[in-house]
Amino acid sequence: MNLPALRGHNDALVLDLLRGAGPAGLGRTELAARTGLTPQAVSKITARLGADGLVAEAGRAASTGGKPRTLLRLVPDVRHAVGVHLDRDELRAVRVDLAGRVVAESEGPLDFRAGPEEAVEAVVRAVARVADPSGPPLLGVGVAAPGPLDHRVGVMGRVTGFPSWKGFPLRGVLEGRLGLPVLLDKDTNAGAAAAAGAWLRATWPDADAEADINADADADSDAEVEADVGAGSGAGVGAGPGGDGHAGGGPRTCVYLHVGTGLGAGLWLGGGVYRGVRSAAGEFGHQVLLLDGPPCRCGARGCVEVLCLEAVNRGDLAGAARIVGEAAANLVALLDVDRVLLGGRVVAAAPDVFVARVGAVLAARRLDPARPVVALAGAGVAEGAAEMALAPLFGHAG
Q: How distant, in Å, are the alpha carbons of 21, 134, 265, 333 from that of 78?
């Protein structure tokens, strides 16, 4: 048995649960119940994480007749990560703590057409602006860019309208320049991760409610080694309140629809981002709504993207929202999702219009009376890119 790998897996399970619990924290007995680890193993893990500064006491729970239990919490400020959103005409970078909260940000113009070398320089400068040399260490940098791209190897694809990007190894080049781990993904996938992270933080329990966890006492013994407790079962991540492979119990299925200089979708299915076998899932903007409609830059005619952006350009945001709604209704009928989350600069210009119009289109579809919730995403793409950079610490794939 690979004990270091097992320890890393178990540490991640505990950290993920503590992150989901928020400032209120959890007791060791509750951590043991949710992870499937023994109380002794949990005590060893939390002691080790405490020595690394990642975990601290969050106070005492109300006594149920025995010794008051010590609650533990994640220490958000001990490590940070950076997220970068490379859009077609602007760049935004954020630095976040382990809870995903933004502690620094920077934004400015970007000419995506100028090519990858110019963009690399812009990313390096942006990371330097948001970094704090005297602050907590950076775990890595997440970069979100227009697709298509290959998330697995970090190489850009043939971005529609920008042929010079095809085949550019953006992740590898940035890792060489920054000296940090870099994760590259599509902007819409980062948007989906941001939306899920915002939901997680919005559902953090109050300290008083969390103090009522049903357990008798802390277990402080560290007599057993972790390799002997069946710790690799993976019980903990799926054992959160939502039971969806996500410790905070976020929405089981949702789509993030990004309306900006282009249109795309991020798919959150089964507790994680769904990218497809070739990292090509989520081309929401290139479904055809109008046969023989106006030509789209993808080569087809009457795509959602071209119809929506034409409406935006003529100032008809209500019409643009209805077009997005019709396309969203097709996606909802296909995937049966719980939530439709909206983001991007066009949505930000008229959030109420988009939520209302997309919701109205879905309400008019009578295939299923239990229609999904339509809401704003609650966080941006750069935040989602940072969330992906944090993911390995909490046992998730980036």
A: 17, 12, 33, 43
pLDDT value at position 230? 35
d(CA 397, CA 142): 13
Sign for the CA dihedral angle at 127, 130, 133, 139 comes to negative
Whats the size of the chain, residue-wise? Answer: 398
Smallest Cα–Cα separation from 397: which of 249, 231, 248, 193? 193
SS3 264: strand
Q: Give the pLDDT score at 298.
A: 85
Instruction: Read off the pTM.
Output: 0.81
Strand 373-376's sheet: what is its strand order? Answer: 272-274, 263-269, 253-259, 339-343, 373-376
Sheet holding 90-97, edge to edge: 102-109, 90-97, 80-86, 138-145, 182-186
- DSSP one-letter code for 303: B
- Give the count of beta carbons closer than 10 Å to the beta carbon of residue 235: 15
Return the residue matching tokens 């760049």. Answer: 91
Taking 50 as the pLDDT cut, the residues of the chain under it are 1-3, 206-250
Q: What span, in angstroms and rounded, lies between the C-alpha atoms of 382 and 187?
A: 8
